[in-house]
Amino acid sequence: MIQKMIRTTGIFALLFLPSLILSFFAYTVLHQFILFIGMVIAGWLAFYFSNAISEKNRLNQEIFLQSYELKTTKEALDSCLIGESRTQAHNERFLNSKLTDECNRAKRYHRPLSCLLIGVDAFEELSITRGTIFAQAVFQELLRFLKESTRSIDSSIRYGDEQIVVILPETQLNQAEIVARRIQFSIEKKTFMIDRETLKITVSIGILCFDPELYRGRDEMMSALHQTLLAAKRKGPNQIAGIAST
Questions:
Q1: Which of 16, 63, 144, 190 falls between 20 and 30 A from 95, CA-CA?
Q2: pTM to 2 decimals?
């Protein structure tokens, strides 16, 4: 503001000074009137150009700030994507290791093992309408809820972008179905609070009981587990489907 006043005063002085000097040579009222009009015009021009310069500077500053904000946002997003990529890689390694160990244990000691594959219904639509960050916050809250709702020997592990694998050691198929129904009902009734916004969701759940005669290991079991989730989704949202051991 002070710079604007100084600039306006300086421009006005430069335009007014010649008129002031010429006023000493104006002997008639007409000449003085013409000089007065000239001074008014000069003052108005000084004010106009000063405002134009200030507006240009303001716009340049806004453009700079917006560019800086965009750059900062991009850097933060890149950082999140890198972090998310590392997290997914860690989750995949942990899932592979955990499921391999549990399959080997079930095979060696002839113990039951079941798994759930849980997918959030309409998760892609949620990401589009509410934004990726909001959708991921919902997913993280769901994962936390599952970890709190299962036993200490169970493992709830993120799988890909929108699915969760729940490993249930010492669990027969009928017991896994009970767990799945309880999870399904609890999530259906639960209200999620994300950034002061409430949200209701449902999930589809695939159930599989490990059979070493059918599945030689982790990869074959995960492939079959995928099929159970697809079967649940084909039935509609908030559904459960399973494959029993033979």
A1: 190
A2: 0.65
Q: Single out the residue of 136, 160, 132, 158 nearest to residue 147, CA to CA.
A: 158
CA distance 142 to 187: 8
Residues 6+ apart with CB under 8 A from 106: 112, 113, 169, 210, 212
SS3 of 171, please? coil
Q: pLDDT tens digits, residue range 96-134?
A: 999 999 999 999 999 999 999 999 999 999 999 999 889
Over 86-141, what HEC string results?
Answer: HHHHHHHHHHHHHHHHHHHHHHHHCCCEEEEEEEECCHHHHHHHHCHHHHHHHHHH
C-alpha 7/C-alpha 4 separation (Å) is: 5
Token duo for residue 241: 């489907």
Structure token pair of residue 25: 């040579």
Cα(195)–Cα(80) distance, integer angstroms: 18
